[in-house]
Amino acid sequence: MTGTALTPGRPPVTDLLADLARGILRIRLVAVALTILSLPTAVVQTQALSIALVVAMAVSVIPLLSWDRVGPALLRHPLLLTLDAVVALGVMLVAGPHSPFFYFTLGTAALGGLLYRWVGATLFSLIMLAGYGLVVTFAARLIDIDPTFHNLVGIPALYPIIGAVGAGIRALLDRQAATEERLEHANARAAAAEERTRLARELHDSLGKTLHGIQLAAAALPHRISAEPQRAGADAEAIARAALVAASQARALITGLRSGPDHGSLREALETRIGSWRDGGDIEVELSLDEIQRLGPDTCDELVAIAEEALHNVTHHAQASHVRVDLAIDDDCAVLRIVDDGIGFEVPAHLATLADAGHFGLVGLHERAERAGGRLHVRSRPGEGTAIAVRVPLSASDMEALV
């Protein structure tokens, strides 16, 4: 139920690139509209200019409306933008180099830098500069164009400037993408390290201690047989029960590794795990689970594990026909209760006595409750069933959720 996500609300770099490209295409359409408005009606209605403006609008509208399909093709094939540049220069030849359509051609240089980085900025700036020179040379034969610094240098200098701006923005996007990729890898490594730590803790605190208890009991069994043969049978049964507990703990660990951590609420996790347990047996289950949001992920993991272990004990030891599982808030504490109508047992006063009696599972439940920041209470008597309750202060869980 843990994990770190990227900054919420931040769009992917590919989306930012698409938005910027669409913005440039919209500016080019505005340039076409300004060209139509600025030229005399008689000029606009000429066949050559009309066709040229329609083509110019098409090469902007089509990628604007279908960027998801056209955009990847442009990124793979720079020749498509080269054709766009030829169209733009052809229209400017008809409209004139000093018409608002000049700003349309600046958009081509900007797209070159944005889509193809510095190489594209350089290449398309040179293409547009060369084309602009040809347009001005041709137009000078028809109209008087003053050979001023502004006309010969200032205006065409905008092509490399705009191309560099596009390439600079693309460099920033690439840097952001690299940062996000490193962050994603770091999060993956952190999640893997956290899972290894959790698994090591589970092995040490539950399965490791159970196996250690089995080893101690088995080592003492030969002496018990020779010294107190009447108790050897009980010790052997305790070892067998502990082996079942160890097998259950191993299965729980394997199941956790296969399914991964739960990312839903505690209520959803309990419903899923209890539902799986109920499907595997014939014990009637009654659920009363409230939604509790103020619990940290580690606390939820421990409570789910406690419920699973308690239900395993019901299956193998309680001989119960009915189980009730409650989750509620009581006196600013999250309380999980598992109550069965089984045969019950005499509850020892100390954990050490529980281990000696072979109740290694209950020892693990106590330890899990402590890790969750709470306490576990067991109430049982022979013939009266068993009630297990875990109380976790919500204040402690709130602090965990903030870490």
Largest sheet: 5 strands, mixed
Total separate domains: 2
Total strands: the figure is 5
**Distance between the amino and carboxyl termini:** 14 Å
Low-confidence stretches: 1-10, 397-403
Mean pLDDT: 82
The level of helicity is over 70%
| Individual helix count | 14
Element pattern in H and E: HHHHHHHHHHEHEEHHEEH
Strand order of the main beta sheet, please?
1-2-3-5-4
The value of Rg in angstroms is 37 Å
Strand content: 5-15%
The shape, in one word, is rod-shaped
Structural class: alpha+beta
Task: Reconstruct the topology from this structure.
Blueprint: H1 13-38, H2 41-44, H3 47-65, H4 67-76, H5 78-95, H6 102-140, H7 149-154, H8 158-227, H9 229-259, H10 266-279, E1 284-289, H11 297-318, E2 322-329, E3 333-340, H12 351-356, H13 360-371, E4 375-380, E5 386-393, H14 394-402
Parallel strand pairs: 1-2
Antiparallel strand pairs: 2-3, 3-5, 4-5
Helix pairs in contact: 1-3, 1-6, 3-4, 3-5, 4-5, 5-6, 6-8, 8-9, 8-13, 9-11, 10-11, 11-13
